[in-house]
Design a protein that fits this description.
The chain is an alpha+beta fold. It has seven helices and 16 strands. The N and C termini lie far apart (53 Å).
Amino acid sequence: MDAQTFHFVNGSSPLSVSPHHILPQDKRPNLNQPPLLSSVPVIDLMEEPCSLVVDKISKACEEYGFFQIINHGVPHELCDRMLAVLTAFFELPPQEKAPFLATDQTQQVKLFNYYVKSDGQKKVSMWSECFAHPWHPLDDILHLLPQNPPQYREVIVEYGKEIYVLMKRLLSLISQGLGLENDCLETKIGEKPAFRAQGNYYPPCPDPELTLGLNVHTDVSALTIVRQLEGVTGLQVIKDGNWVQVEPIPNAFVINIGDQIQVLSNGRFKSVHHRAVTNKTRKRVSIATFYTPDKDTIIGPIRDLIDEQHPPLYWEYRFSEFLEEFFKQEGTRRMVKETFELKV
């Protein structure tokens, strides 16, 4: 499907970049800047010994906040099916997608567009459509998920089970990288974590210089696993003031540290700003699965990581307080964890 046949849920066909998608000059992607640096680290989870994998993950979390993993155990064909049913959903006629359009931001299953506020608080929509819902367990909300395409529910259940196993494995490896017990991060994030999935669809864009697929942001979650459509670039991460392209490697997942692990690690592991840019000729599709604390969970630097040389950088907060600040900054380049910093 191309720009001529795709329609945003509001019915508009992206044949040209309309004014409500054009970013102010200072927020545009500047795609003509000097060449991007090389991609983020790629880590083979089957590499031996395991301590080497832990060291590589730890280094990537400290230096990039992002890395890719291969040999992760999730079947390639399942990931292909997940992206295929997601793409089929986004490419439905607008009237079929309309019932999922968010009228209330707290809806469990919702189709929506991100936006940024420009001068005079005017909203500028991102060049993308997003579809979000829980990913595990799904028994209670399965009836709310799309019936078309008909395989959607079956595939997301299967995908969610695999991602759950991988998420726990990664949390264990990241805990070990901090010198903590294997289950430390999982315990600190709490017994009732929230599991949210977000599909992102970026149609071809006639003028990628004028807009963004997703605005610059960090993830509010603890940990994020992203599957990208192979062969189409778009995800970029900030590193030393430069944008680094996260190349879509065959059968790889992109892993990124969320704000909550940055706070729990007392700033050692980084939740970094990233964005999605568009391109003229090809659509791009991705699915992000987020692992996030429950609203009542208390988050703060883990005590074992604090000493005289490493005083606490953040105060403790209830996660609901963090979310409150997050929604207060909607439409801006959010700086949420910074509001919880202790002034050392």
